[in-house]
Specification:
By secondary structure, the protein is mainly beta. It contains one helix and 14 strands.
Length: 187
């Protein structure tokens, strides 16, 4: 969806919508097919830095990182879900990824600050991307696909379990990710 238009069709509450990003990705909007209206989605108040925006099983999700105190090794993602009437977002899951950091230390990046008394070994950044939020038929089946250097991890948002589902070697450049949707239509 980079640099223009990108649309994804979704069905919520029996109504079809076209969800998309226009104008470089800064203003998420949706197109109501039945009334032919373009509407802008509300933002989550008081936060910025969206790291994922997508749909699963007719539900829109927005993932934001909750920033820890400086020097603290803590990674929490907040998964928001859009209300059915598109009037706002609510916090659906708080996903703690501290165990993932312990299991995969290659996620941790350090920044050395020259001329400061700060310990250069304190982690400042985490190298990861949320590839997808996949809503299960039941709430406890919902998971996130997370890219970390050289691996793709499946992280269950309900019970906090995780497992490596794919090994990427050698390093593959990752630009955009698109979900595979099986269809009977042939072109």
């Amino acid at each position: 969806m980079e640099g223009g238009e990108g649309w994804q069709e979704t069905k919520t509450g029996g109504r079809r919508r076209r969800i998309g990003i226009l104008g470089g990705g800064s203003n998420p909007c949706y197109f109501k097919i039945d009334t032919e209206e373009l509407k802008f989605l509300p933002s989550v108040v008081g936060v910025n830095g969206t790291i994922y925006f997508g749909e699963s099983r007719g539900h829109l999700h927005l993932v934001l990182r909750k920033w820890a105190d400086r020097g603290e090794r803590h990674l929490q993602l907040n998964v928001y879900e859009m209300l059915n009437d598109y009037s706002g977002w609510f916090l659906k899951y708080r996903v703690e990824l501290d165990e993932l950091l312990n299991a995969y230390p290659q996620m941790i990046q350090t920044i050395k600050v020259i001329g400061r008394d700060q310990d250069p070994s304190i982690p400042q950044l985490y190298n990861y991307s949320v590839l997808d939020v996949v809503r299960g038929e039941e709430d406890d089946e919902t998971f996130m696909a997370i890219f970390i250097p050289g691996k793709i991890i499946k992280s269950n948002v309900y019970d906090k379990s995780f497992k490596q589902i794919f090994n990427l070697s050698p390093i593959i450049y990752k630009s955009q990710v698109h979900r595979f949707i099986e269809t009977l239509v042939s072109f």
